[in-house]
């Protein structure tokens, strides 16, 4: 099972016209067939109405909500995977601003898988 820690203060991303942020972790990797592959592993909606304490995400050992699987069937064994944290601004009025920020990049190589039933 893949898990990670998240420690981010999203308060600076909020202002008078932001209703909520859609926060998500993306795994990126390369294959011979596709140089760019991205999979969302985890997401969360952070709302302005919930107050400043909820704009700080500090969680340890967060498990993926969505599976890290290569959809083309090439497998991820031996591949370098980069995890990135993004958030989309969802305003009260105006345009949705997507993929605004990437805060951390962590690369790791998947060497073996084990299935837990």
Highlighted features:
single chain, 117 residues, mainly beta, 47% strand
Give a quick precis of the structure.
By secondary structure, the protein is mostly beta strands. Helix content is 0%, strand content 47%. The radius of gyration is 16 Å and the shape is elongated.
Number of domains: 1
Number of strand segments: 6
Report low-confidence residues grouped into runs of 5 or more.
112-117
Mean pLDDT: 82
The main sheet orders its strands as 3-2-5-6
Number of helices: 0
What percentage of the residues does DSSP assign to strands (E)? over 45%
Structural class: mainly beta
Helix content: under 10%
**Main beta sheet strand tally, sense and closure:** 4 strands, antiparallel
C-alpha Rg, in Å? Answer: 16 Å
Dominant shape? elongated
Question: What does this 3D model show about the protein?
Answer:
The protein has 117 residues and is mostly beta strands. It has one domain (3-109). It has strands spanning 3-9, 18-29, 37-47, 56-63, 80-91, 105-109. The strands form two sheets. It has a four-stranded antiparallel sheet with strand order 3-2-5-6, with no helix packed on it. The chain has a two-stranded antiparallel ribbon with strand order 1-4. The N and C termini lie close together (11 Å). The relative contact order is 0.28.
